[in-house]
Design brief:
The protein has 628 residues and is of the alpha+beta class. The chain folds into 4 domains: 192 residues, Heat Shock Protein 90, CATH 3.30.565; 125 residues, Ribosomal Protein S5, domain 2 (2-Layer Sandwich); 128 residues, formyl-coa transferase, domain 3; 94 residues, Ribosomal Protein S8, Chain: A, domain 1. Helices cover 31% and strands 21% of the residues. It is built from 16 helices and 22 strands. The strands form 5 sheets. An 8-stranded mixed beta sheet has the order 5-4-3-6-2-1-7-8. A 5-stranded mixed beta sheet has the order 9-10-13-11-12. Strand 20 and strand 21 form a beta hairpin. The longest helix has 21 residues. The chain is elongated and about 100 Å long.
Length: 628
Amino acid sequence: MSDIIKLLPDSVANQIAAGEVVQRPASAVKELLENAIDAGANKIQLIVKDAGKALIQVIDNGCGMSVTDARMCFERHATSKVRKAEDLFAIRTMGFRGEAMASIAAIAQVEMKTRKHEDEIGTLIEIEGATFIRQEPVATPEGTSISIKNLFYNTPARRNFLKSNPAEMRHIIDEFQRVAMANPGIAFSLHHDGIEIYRLPASALKQRIVHLFGNNYNERLIPVEEETSIINLKGFIGKPEFAKKTRGEQFFFVNNRFIKDAYLNHAVNRAYEELLPDDNFPLYVLFIDIDPSKIDVNVHPTKTEIKYLDEKSIYAILHSAVKRSLGRFNISPTIDFDQETGFSSMITHKAPEEIVPPSISFNPDFNPFAADKPAARDSSYSQDSSYASFPKSYGSGGGKTPTSTKNWGSLYEIANHNPAHQSSLDLPGNEGDDQLVPVQKQLMQLHNRYIISQIKSGLMLIDQQSAHERVLYERFILHLEDRKGASQQSLFPQTVTLSPNDYELAKSLLDDIKSLGFEVREFGKNTLVIEGIPVDLGSSNINETQLFEHLIEGFKNSQQELKLDKRDALARSMARNSAIKSGTVLGQVEMNMLIEQLFACKTPNFSISGKPVIQTIGLTELDKKFDK
């Protein structure tokens, strides 16, 4: 019998290694940026085309390479960082495995130009699928320029598994943000398809965070700093009121290397446990400096996981430092060298305007005991009540509203609905301000959270927020299917500026967002203009910018938690953000209309989170409470 075990050819071995190192274009971006940093560059350019599928180019002004080094860097396990096994436990550089360049060259067409500062002429190397095409002298600026073209061109199966361009571009932006945040002293720029997404000057850490995420982050940050014999900790955490529903803005760096660590993340979240709900996540950008001999960074191909010798002590230090910073902030807000945006309006060269105290007007002849008092109106319908904030089109809706076909089933019997009053109700105000619309039955609101209704067998409780979310969710799903969401034009269009990552996401969702009833168009760099909102949201005072930001944030959260399809996640996010909230006071007409709309839904008894919307308590159960 012949031998069956053979050594793999280098070309196959390189492609297998590439499967570990280069999973998508963002993986190649990370490796090239880290190599540029290790080369001592203080200016790095990243140019991307077709979300990295057509071109990834990194240009730096680092030390450059000699002719021999330029050729050697594409060999497997060739590195300038490690000489002996002990060096693996004293690593402070980014790239050290010696696999990245060989793996990238195995699955792409690579062109590299490099020149050392002391040399007069540089070197050009072209490689295609791990095969050297040419190497020759070339005139080039000092530093290194590497172009990766047609990634996965010779492994079409891998290329087919890549996501859409917006999705892949979001991963590239994520990697770019991590590298740029860890190195604020280096100037970075990012261009995609000829459009400049980032131009980051060398700066301090706080300015780098603000440049990456937006000027409004200047007032959200609290400094953290702690020096111990085990670790040195510095960075920023976010104020509790700006926490989000997703974990996107949480960054740990150990010796300037981005890592993912659920254990340390738990330490930070524990410090916020009395300040945030369970489903909210704070912003943090924290840098841990530790002796390299106390950690092992060589435990994962992507180098995003680390093992520690004394992780319990690090946990305790991290938790106490964050807790202390939050305590100091609560006592007195911190002001450092960066001007807080809240003080901008106080800085002026004009003389302060005279402060006029408020005046109160009253009728001195008013007699509360006079016989001809005006007729009192039901407070449920007063213009000053919370009814003004309830969606005006709640009963009539915009586009399709599922009121024509009742889906009562057993709920019909439970509610003991009277057929004589099944006609849909119009909201008050349609026939004059003083016209009160008769209601179907007397309802009661409990703690402005639950609606109580008497039924044959006892009483029925309805969670008002969950009920409204269910109604809006089914309505928005219809709009997305029919592409006919009605829009209400805004008197003053609003602009919303998003982070580059969220902007790419919003662009990919734009058609579906318009189907909901939004009128949105692109308006410059990372900016959209909102010219209309869905009719379903009514004419109440709505902050269009805040609503749109919450819509994007809620979409990301729904997709992460439930892995929903795009439209379903969008409808859930929209329903959650535009539904009435617990604590909203409702009048009789509003409560009746909410119940009528709920029972017209396909699934009225469950919320969009799968929890009960309706609970019934029978007379028998009530009698037991009173020992009857």
